[in-house]
From TrEMBL:
Keywords: Signal. Residues 1-23 form the signal peptide. This is Peptidase MA-like domain-containing protein. It comes from Gordonia defluvii. InterPro entries: Peptidase_MA-like_dom (IPR039568). Residues 318-450 form the Peptidase MA-like domain. The keyword Signal applies.
Amino acid sequence: MASRWLRAPVVLCGALLLASCGAQTPDSSRNATTSTTVDVFQQQRTDGVTALLHRLDRALLRGTPADLAAIVDPAASPEFRRSLQVMQDNLSSITPRTDAEARQPLRYKTFEHYVGAADAEELVPDAVAAKLTAQGSSDSWVSPVRLRFALGGVGVPGLDESPIDIEAPLVVARYDDRWTLVGDLEVLHRPPNGAGLWSFPGVRATAAPTGTGQSVVASYPGAAEMAARLVALLPAAVRAVTAFWGDRWPQRALVIATGSDQEFAALAVSGGADVSAAAAATVYTTLDVPNHAVTGQRIVFTPAASRLATPLLAVVLRHELSHVAVRLATKPDAPQWLTEGVAEYVGRKGTYVRFEDVAPDLAVTTRTGAAPAWPTDQDFAVDSQRASLAYQSAWSIAAFVAQRYSEDALRKLYLGVAGAADDAAAAAAIRDAVGVPQPELERQWRAWVRKQTGG
């Protein structure tokens, strides 16, 4: 929900007054008075909107539709009203439930909106501001609201996650001492940047015992059967990932089964990418590798994944859980031949007999005489025609290292390269893990692939 902030006229006016007064009369008390006036105005805004946000959170978590309607501006769009009602339906503890006991509403131990800091303010669109003024509003504001939330408590007993903090700007209007909600990014004619689990109707959750705790599978209407399959697969999938990476990870995850491409695109923040060929994505909100901190990890499955046979679905689940297990050791710019290749290796381990079972495209390409190509990050794009070959090639690199050098060497290679500070450190990590530089490793890998395929 990133936004670009501009200064509001009142702040600019205050700044200009300070500059002109300072030039004409170097009177510190006059400057202080002007600055204080601006601060008082802004503080009144902040206090008023803070009270409005408290009412919003109470309505969403413990309120009725009438409580929500009481704080929404008459100028608010039907779409904004519907989005708030969907949130309340998903979040409110007093909303009637008709689901089976195994599928519960998601619960949050933290869920609060607050007014954050901003370098400047974005102007309310002229047409919206004019409509609010005609209704009697004395002020309108694109407030730099933030949302802090964390799953936990009843309904998600094993998933006690750290708070996640995101931008959630809101357009608000003032009528005397009363503030109302006018809209969100839609009013500003900008698409939302991602979505929360509460953003689509009917989200429910099922707990799945894994490792030393519990994972949670969230799902939407139309995905209940997929959710049940994932719940059944999760315990063995976590054990398989732990067998490779060890037990120094939470051994639990939040897994989401979406019921539409729209839900997947928003929850996985996939933008305009073609998700028709995708099965799942692992996303996170913040990652701080040096300080060993990550928030908002989720594994999101596409609706198309429900058509996968159970053995292949298990491969995808293990692949994505492998990303979760080593997220804190993986810098965001780590090379995908490594991150995707090792995840594929973990996901597919023990599921195939022949090289061609995992890498049919790579086998065909090699047999035609083309030299196996070490994949680049661009090759892995979901909507890239090279994506299938890139994933197969990356898997084969990991499989080659494990077979030629050992799985210990593969783990060492991953941890060294994925956490490397720069290219020189990555090159040193490769040599340290397998005893040869990357060009020699690539040469050995190409020879191995040719041998596996008869190319």
